[in-house]
Amino acid sequence: MEQVDAGYTELRSYQREMKHRLYEKWWGGSRSVMVQMPTGTGKTFLMAAVVRENAADGVLVVTHRIELVEQISETLSRFGVRHGVIAGGRKALLAENVRVASIQTLSRCIDSLSFCPSVVVVDEAHHALAKTYRILWEKWPEALFLGLTATPCRLSGEPFTDLFEVLLQAWSMERFIDEGWLADFEYISADPNSKAVRRVGLLSKRGADGDYQLKEMATVMDCPESIRHLYDTYQTFASGKKGIVYAINREHARHIVEYYRKGGVSCCMIDAKTPPEERRSLVEDYRNGRITLMVNVDIFSEGWDVPEVEVIQLARPTLSLAKYLQQVGRGMRVSSKKSHVMILDQVGLYLAFGMPIQRWDWQRMFEGRQAGRSVTCNTYPIYIGEEAMEKQLVNLEMVRIKRKEEKREGMEVFMQGGKYGIALDGKEVCAPQFTRIERLPEPYFALCFYPYDAVFRGKVTVVDAKGRDLRPELYGKVECKGDFFKGYDFAGKQVYWDSKTRRFYERMPELGRLGRFELVKQDAAYMFRFRERGLDFSFRKEDVRVSATEKVFIIGKHLIVNDKKEQFLYEFLGFSKGMILVKLPGQNVYRLILDSGNRFCDFRPPYPGTVTRTPDRMYIRFHHWPGF
């Protein structure tokens, strides 16, 4: 009888929810279901629970690699599930209702199998190609099928609908991190202009799987300078941390191990050719701290469960989204021995795929309407913070993409495709089209400089602290002087642009106040310094009369109340009965107001009383404004 680890077998809430959704689909008539859950969230536990519940009726678990067969076997044992194994020449006991098989071995003996499972589970189902796996559906047409994967996508863009009817998706990776089920991460990437990224850009050949050709990758990337850079980056940002390095091939991995060991780092190399017993011994040494780094060739991209991983070092370029997410996901399992995982992206995969928490349209990829491949380099933004000038980052040609627990909040500058843009709370508000950005004090954010070309001709714009492009139409050298910006107009004439009113002045105007209202003065002309319909007019100081209470200003045909609690702008009609007659702007309504600015009464025209242009000084007094 298998020994059951009770604590190990208890499903988490989201795993129970996914299991319930799976059964709903099966009972609803969808015989073949694919389940997507991010790497590190326990797909294998979900699988083991489903296997245990259906063991009496027979279950077959199929995977594509022998090392995954062994891991699944260990998990089933912890769940107390009796099972046999068909892989690498080992055949399950005929009495066992649950069997674990590699697809390679199974394809050779499937015709001789009398075993008839009620459920067939396909692990790492993104590898399930129809021409290879179709035999399972043909052999057991009445069985229920479950495909498990973190990445339901293919580099070729081929759909999964030829094998699976439905895709069930779990939460986003970001939510798993926020709720504490996955570890947070810090991400440091190769600079878009670095030698490493330029090397990747030289890769032009493709392998049979559509990814970069291994031989060309090794020729370009496996060089002393590149390996020294890997070592220096690890020692600078993650020295002493336990981790995994993803290499191109065995030779590349061997060179990395040799260089790291010379630098005092305890490390080993593992690949598919490493004997199983030696592999288990090395992993045990790693768990116990005798080995710090494991340099591997694709062996730990899938199915490897070591939560203690503190650093992932990506030294192998790829065009495959699945490979990228599987690799970085190895470090995102939660462990009490780490606060987060450090991702050292030495080949600029961020530029092609974005961060691991990017939201992917898995349904489109499942249906074959979108390929799971990288896009053109420099597509994803590099956010520029103060740490961008850290000497260590600059010297290593690296940029910090994300800190632990960092969220994209507030106003930020980012670089994309060699140009700068601005984002607010992680959303683009100004497209990356600027050659330079200079930060400004609040209430502004930045001066943004367009390129000197036939289209923009060196235009400069101003973005405020709310992410709004104020579009001043300035050119050349621009200086911020409070709320004014000194620059040049399109014709090359020097101007001063007022950001509050969007007006241009030939010279810097004088500033002053009329009561609570700010004014600007150019020569003898005054204007209100705020944008309000009906107030966009100029006047001279002789045009202004001020009430004795200093609550009312009459400027030509306008009357303005110096009180925030009252309607402040009216059309001035005259004086009557010790009060002031005005008309509400845009309305056919008259109002009598006191010299305090307070309303007395409203009525429809015509006005029955006598109206004069001068006040009765017995009741109301005005004086001329001296200006400034």
What would you note in describing this structure?
- By secondary structure, the chain is α/β, with parallel strands linked by helices.
- The protein folds into four domains: 6-170, P-loop containing nucleotide triphosphate hydrolases (Rossmann fold), CATH 3.40.50.300; 176-395, P-loop containing nucleotide triphosphate hydrolases (Rossmann fold), CATH 3.40.50.300; 420-490, no CATH class; 538-624, no CATH class.
- Helix content is 23%, strand content 29%.
- It contains 16 helices and 37 strands.
- The strands form six sheets. An eight-stranded antiparallel β-sheet has the order 36-35-34-33-32-31-30-37, with no helix packed on it.
- Helix 2 (13-27) packs across helix 3 (43-54).
- The radius of gyration is 36 Å and the shape is elongated.
Can you give keywords for this protein?
alpha/beta; single chain; seven-stranded parallel sheet; disordered N terminus; eight-stranded antiparallel sheet; Rossmann fold; 23% helix; 4 domains; 628 residues; 16 helices; elongated; 37 strands
Write the SSE topology:
Blueprint: H1 6-9, H2 13-27, E1 32-36, H3 43-54, E2 59-63, H4 66-78, E3 84-86, E4 98-102, H5 103-109, E5 119-122, H6 130-139, E6 144-149, E7 166-169, H7 173-178, E8 184-190, H8 195-201, H9 214-221, H10 224-238, E9 243-246, H11 250-262, E10 267-270, H12 276-287, E11 293-296, E12 311-314, H13 321-329, E13 340-345, H14 349-353, H15 362-366, E14 382-384, H16 391-395, E15 398-402, E16 411-416, E17 419-424, E18 427-434, E19 436-439, E20 444-449, E21 459-464, E22 474-481, E23 484-488, E24 494-498, E25 503-505, E26 510-514, E27 517-522, E28 525-528, E29 538-539, E30 544-547, E31 552-555, E32 558-561, E33 569-576, E34 579-583, E35 590-593, E36 599-603, E37 622-624
Parallel strand pairs: 1-6, 1-7, 2-4, 2-5, 3-4, 5-6, 8-13, 9-11, 9-12, 10-11, 12-13
Antiparallel strand pairs: 8-15, 14-16, 16-17, 17-18, 19-20, 20-21, 21-22, 22-23, 23-24, 24-25, 26-27, 27-28, 28-29, 30-31, 30-37, 31-32, 32-33, 33-34, 34-35, 35-36
